[in-house]
Amino acid sequence: MDPVCPLDYRYGRKEIKAIFGEEQRLQYLLEIEAALARAHASIGNIPQDAADEITKKANIKTVKVKRVKEIELETKHDIMAVTKALSEVCTGDAGKYIHLGATSYDIVDTANALQFIHATDMLSHEIKNLRTSLLKLIKKHRHTVMLGRTHGQHTIPITFGLKMAGYAMECERHLERLHELKSRIYIGKLSGAVGTGAALGEHALDLQMEMMKELNLGYEDVATQIVCRDRYNELICCLANIATSMEKFSTEIRNLQRDEIGEVAESFDVKKQVGSSTMPHKRNPITSEQISGLARLVRSFIYPTLENAVQWHERDLCNSSNERFIIPHCFILTDWIVFKMTSVFENLMVFPDRMKENMKISKGLPMAESLMTALIGKGMGRGDAHELMRTTAIKAVQEKKTLKEMFLEDPKNLSLLTKKEVDHALDPMNYLGATDQIIDRVIIKIDRK
Quick one: which of 30, 34, 36, 39 has its CA closest to 210? Predict the structure, then answer.
């Protein structure tokens, strides 16, 4: 059968896709069944040799995906298919102790937690790679002056390094979020059909604690038949938040690459790469556009995730089918988006000369605040200084003159500031505020990691 989902042939790194693939998923389920057996043995519920046999056979070399699928066609139940396939390969009477006292979602949700561990570790590693790429740009362009823009309009000068520093700290916060999530999402359960642990016997709580200790997981404080989905809400919203940051970064690259701005550009293989099937001159920011498109898809998974938290009584099955899409897609796509964003920044072309040229387009208007600040420094009231520069800027636009020309036309202004002071105030390099200190703070913070 030809693949249908683009994850199978277009998007996603093989390393993280493997975590959510059929074989690895089965391996997680088997590991949990084995841990359950060992926990039973540790408190004397089943013979130790039975637990040893179950542990020995609970792997995908022995229990095959193909066999599990064959059984599921008959049973119409995925976890029962796993337990039956495992029992088939166990010798002696060990098979009768498999899945003892458990309900399916004791296994399913605990397997999810193991996937979360490996997937969040992989994602965190890639965010660190992105942060490293940004750090290089920060250091290289800490003094590369460019226009700041708000509302799509020219404002006052910033540096490209400062822009990258903001992105790096956003990545830093996402790393913190992923770390903080661990105590709330690395959670399994062993509490039976409705959370009471009735089928697990008098030592149910000890059994749960022992099993989760084996798996290095926490356990749900008060479970129903499932791990509480507020935990999953937080996880998927975190992934969507990360994806949204990547779209924010990529949108800025796309905007700065526009022909009329042209301050940065994605790398382009001039020997082979094609920008358009009809327009030979095109050099499109295709990776940044892909990031934006896929980030929107990740965000779209928030809605069904939140809906899944609304369960009928102790549980219904409405979450099961869509979580098979939501969890792997969100992780694989978010990881891919971060990976591609890293590639963009690692190979980004930056054009400082164009940034300087763009500073001249507004004929000095972005330095109006700087002149206003200089006037205030000479004793003029803030309101008066603002009004003077506001009217000067308006006249400069109307008469198509530079801000400097318009300001110096009025002799009264020269009684306030000398020409040298005016020139100093109009030099963007002299109006970067605490940029250097802010960048130093960011570099120190990241280098400590």
Answer: 39
Distance, CA of 400 to CA of 389 (rounded, Å): 16
* Active-site hit among 77, 179, 276, 321: 276
Binned at pLDDT 50, 70 and 90, residue 251 comes out as: very high
Kindly state the tokens that stand for 275. Answer: 């920008």
Domain end position, chosen among 339, 357, 375:
357
Would residue 276 show up in a list of annotated catalytic residues for this protein? yes
**Quick one: 122 and 199 in the same domain?**
yes
CATH of the domain at 252: 1.20.200.10
With cut-offs at 50, 70 and 90, classify the pLDDT of residue 404: very high
Is 111 a residue whose pLDDT tops 70? yes
Residues 153 and 217 in one domain: yes
Are 366 and 359 contacting, i.e. CB atoms less than 8 angstroms apart? yes
- Assess if residue 5 is contained within a domain: no
Q: How confident is the model at residue 276 (pLDDT cuts 50, 70, 90)?
A: very low
Catalytic residue among 151, 183, 281, 415: 151
Which is it for the CA torsion 230, 234, 239, 240, positive or negative?
positive
Tell me: pLDDT of 279 over 90. no
Helix (H, G, I), strand (E, B) or coil at 441: helix
Tell me the C-alpha distance between 208 and 291, whole Å: 42
Q: What is the pLDDT of residue 414?
A: 87
- Predicted TM-score (pTM) of the model is 0.94
What pLDDT score was predicted for residue 269?
58
The verdict on whether 277 is a catalytic residue reads no
Rounded CA separation 49/97 (Å): 11
Residue closest to 190 by CA, chosen among 132, 110, 291: 110
**Averaged pLDDT for residues 16-29:** 97
The domain in which residue 154 lies consists of: 104-267+280-357
- Among the candidates 291, 322, 357, a domain finishes at 357
Find the CATH number of the domain harbouring 393: 1.10.40.30
Q: How many domains does the chain divide into?
A: 3
CATH, residue 49: 1.10.275.10
Asked if 49 and 178 sit in the same domain, the reply is no
H-helix segments, 309-418: 318-346, 352-361, 368-377, 382-398, 403-409, 411-414
Distance CA 284, CA 342 (A): 18
Q: Output the pLDDT for position 300.
A: 98
